[in-house]
Specification:
Elements (H helix, E strand, L loop, with lengths): L1 H28 L4 H35 L7 H9 L8 H11 L1 H10 L1 H15 L12 H15 L16 H16 L4 H18 L11 H15 L1 H12 L3 H8 L1
Helix pairs in contact: 1-7, 1-9, 2-4, 4-7, 5-6, 6-7, 8-9, 11-12
Length: 262
């Protein structure tokens, strides 16, 4: 049960990643051309993804060769499959999704400006994600699954909401209480039905923004915020192997759980 509640907080990270990426993308769209933005994303998304994928491919070749007792070279179709959909590189799926969402951002900008297309698009993707007949098509690692929260970030990052960067999202102190209760409520209800699970993912960045308004009054982020974020990002790159190391060294008890999450 303790691990389940910890996963609630952990799961907020993915939705927040897409939300903040959309906010920053809209900021860039107001200052730069489409060509400039795509070149920048090519450098900051595609290049790191391909470099780390090559590292994992090399590790996979070495592991397979050691198991077979001979050098095993993959075929070109296998390499293409590993780069695009390979489970070995599962931790990088969000980069592929972000790249696809960035590629259609001019269309998303038009939707945000007209308002009703954004609402229609978000509602449609939500329906596809929660209806049982479409779950095999709109999977967790697909752009459509995360499009509603990305649209929400585009809305928050549009020019009309620039003031949100310097002012509290909810000036009323009772807003903190409401956001906290709603977050806890959805976190509990997500165990009842997958619809609440999806709702928790989609709105958690905004609720977290409300609860984090107090940090915005600080002149700079505390050192532990920067350090923990940096270590978290580095840790993601070797998550699969780190889990095995933790289990081997710490076991599966409650103490191991606490130490593992720290």
């Amino acid at each position: 049960r303790l691990h389940t509640w910890a996963r609630d907080l952990f799961d907020m990270a993915t939705a927040t990643f897409f939300f903040l990426s959309a906010v920053l993308l809209m900021r860039s769209a107001q200052k730069s051309s489409l060509k400039t933005i795509l070149i920048k994303k090519l450098r900051t998304i595609v290049v790191p993804y391909l470099l780390w994928t090559l590292v994992y491919i090399a590790a996979r070749i070495i592991r397979g060769s050691l198991s077979a007792g001979a050098l095993c070279w993959p075929t070109l179709p296998e390499v293409v499959e590993w780069i695009t959909t390979g489970p070995e590189f599962y931790i990088f799926w969000f980069l592929r999704v972000l790249l696809l969402l960035t590629a259609v951002y001019p269309l998303l900008c038009w939707c945000i400006q007209k308002r009703w297309p954004a609402l229609l698009l978000g509602a449609g993707c939500t329906a596809l994600a929660v209806l049982p007949c479409f779950r095999d098509w709109v999977v967790y690692e697909s752009p459509l699954y995360w499009l509603p929260v990305f649209l929400l970030g585009c809305w928050a990052g549009s020019e009309g909401f620039a003031r949100l960067e310097k002012h509290p999202l909810c000036p009323n102190k009772w807003g903190y209480v409401a956001a906290g209760l709603l977050l806890l409520g959805l976190g509990w209800l997500r165990r009842v039905h997958s619809v609440f699970y999806y709702a928790f993912w989609m709105v958690s960045p905004v609720l977290g923004w409300v609860l984090g308004d107090g940090l915005s009054r600080l002149p700079t982020p505390p050192w532990w915020v920067n350090a923990s974020f940096f270590l978290y990002c580095c840790h993601m790159l070797v998550e699969r192997y780190a889990v095995r190391i933790y289990l081997a060294l710490l076991g599966t008890g409650r103490t191991a759980f606490v130490l593992g999450h720290i």
